[in-house]
Specification:
Elements: H1 3-8, H2 33-46, H3 52-62, H4 68-80, H5 85-128, H6 132-156, H7 167-184, H8 188-207
């Protein structure tokens, strides 16, 4: 039956639902590859002492390209993949919207201009690293980096309430990871395999 025939019979057909990230979804997304490139370039230039906090704030809270839950899921995947976590994440986000071209564009935005700045800073560091003021500034930046990562973790924590794994189990896994990495200083692979496997098993049982 055609749409006109259905309307004539008093049964108007509903419009087809738009894809979750499609033009009709009303959800913010990068407008073009150029928008993607410049967005990740600005992100990279803000990432002094660690880019995680900047990525979470810009993509989740300001641009709203992702929800907090999506960010946590993608960041978890980026963490277990080989290579720098932030680079893995930016390629995943670029590929989500523009495929391979988006992944390469996001990667270029993340690395191009920061690479030039790093080379300049490396030359300056080699010349002035022994100066007491420079050494003190670098130690201060390390403290800022730790604070940024801690603040990002606190902002991401509320999403655990909607996680398939119950909150007590989430807290236990977080505590176990912290203890193994900070106190025992276990290799990352030996932490991810047992505790990550436990989290996957608990989520699978709950979702089944």
């Amino acid at each position: 039956m055609s749409r006109d025939e259905a309307s004539a019979g008093g049964k108007a057909l509903p419009p087809a639902p738009a894809p979750a990230d499609g033009p009709g979804s009303g959800r913010p997304r990068p407008a073009s590859l150029a928008d993607l490139f410049f967005s990740f370039t600005i992100l990279a230039l803000q990432g002094f002492g660690g880019v995680l906090a900047v990525i979470q704030r810009e993509l989740v809270e300001r641009k709203r390209w992702m929800t907090n839950e999506e960010f946590i899921e993608d960041w978890a995947v980026a963490q277990i993949m080989p290579g720098p976590n932030a680079v893995n994440l930016c390629m995943m986000i670029g590929a989500r919207y523009f495929g391979l071209a988006g992944a390469l564009t996001a990667l270029a935005g993340m690395l191009a201009l920061p690479l030039v700045l790093i080379l300049v800073l490396a030359v300056l560091h080699a010349r002035y690293a022994s100066h007491p003021a420079v050494a003190g500034a670098l130690r201060g930046m390390a403290a800022v980096s730790a604070g940024l990562i801690a603040a990002t973790g606190l902002r991401m924590a509320p999403a655990l309430k909607r996680n398939p794994v119950s909150l007590p189990w989430c807290a236990a896994i977080v505590a176990g990871v912290f203890a193994l990495l900070a106190w025992v200083r276990a290799p990352l692979a030996l932490v991810l395999l047992p505790l990550g496997g436990l989290g996957c098993l608990l989520a699978w049982r709950r979702l089944r």
